[in-house]
Here is the input.
Amino acid sequence: MRFRSVFRVSQSRNRAPLLLFRQEASRPFSQLPSRSERSSLGIAFDIDGVILRGRTPIGGAPQALRRLYGDCGIIQLLGALKIPFLFLTNGGGIPESKRASELSELLGINIVPSQVVQGHSPFKKLVNRFENELIVAVGKGEPAVVMSEYGFKKVLSMDEYASYFENIDPLSSYKIWTTKQASNSNSTSKEFTPRCNVLLDRVQAAFVVSDPVDWGRDIQVLCDILRTGGLPGKVNGHQPPLYFAADDLEYQAAFPSERLGMGAFRLALESIFNRIHHNALEYTSFGKPNPFVFKNAEAILRHLQSASYHVMTNGHPGCHPFKTLYMIGDNPSVDIKGARQAGHPWFSILTRTGVFRGEENHAEFPADLVVDTVEEAVDYILRTECTP
Ligand code: G3P
Ligand code: MG
Here is the structure.
């Protein structure tokens, strides 16, 4: 194993010396700190470029994650979780429960849905506002299913919504995949359609849930919805709210170099909309690096901590402040910037398995620590936290 760790020069906290990290033998799990000591740390793992590339585990992720559980091999219960951790990804497109099962299968550990925070997870908070309003959900996977599970009752995927408007996409007949998709289509959101006339009802909000698949069609139909006040083909009206689950310009998928992400789609939509409409596009982006994402992650980690250790204070889950929360990410302008902005108790670790590949630390958003892989990051954390 080759260690090329880099610490941030301006690091203010006292950390274990680099020498300690250079030791190659892993400390056995039985030597982890006692329950009370352990409960003051938590870990947030980015997924794309840290844990997975496409659907392939990378950087020793399965074995690294296994070290956060007890030593009983296959983990069946959350109670066996020794160090609270979660996945904090800007990706998505499927419900958190499904992502948890998928991750469990790929990584060989038992992940529960509450350990999965996706870019679109905060959309839940908008249910009160749009619960019974017609909304459109854009992106790969099952965006309408995601929104239905959050409680939105009148949600249509962009695929389904566009299918109601004849000729809305003049290029559709050239798109072999959409023809195929339409014949296999098994929509789960049709249930509400009898209560709503898509050709007459105005869309009250558009949500970009995951990376859009057909950028051309989606930009066209979103421009239609947004400039007409929610009803394509009609005259201009007030722009309905537009929400993005994240704003990543690029991310690491299975291809060797970075792929364009939701932030790139947002830029494309915005520049086109601003050329064809007199008012500039208004939108809200969620996901990392927003500080509320890190606050929310801290709250979930505290909950996992309480659930794991059954810490109770006056009959309520205990609120032990975290000494350190680690963010392990591959994208300096998203993961590291976010953790830095969130401040104490966040400590950022940048891996070289994704967007970032530099030898030294990132110049604009330097991490507290740079390592090659997630396995090295976990090794560092366990060593540091084990130091008396
Ligand atoms: O589409 C996924 C991507 O934007 C980022 O995913 O796990 O690196 O936050 P992640
Ligand atoms: Mg990433």
About this structure: Confidence is low (pLDDT under 50) at residues 9-38, 72-79, 311-315. Residues 219 and 268 are 8 Å apart (CA to CA). DSSP finds 13 helices and 18 strands in the chain.
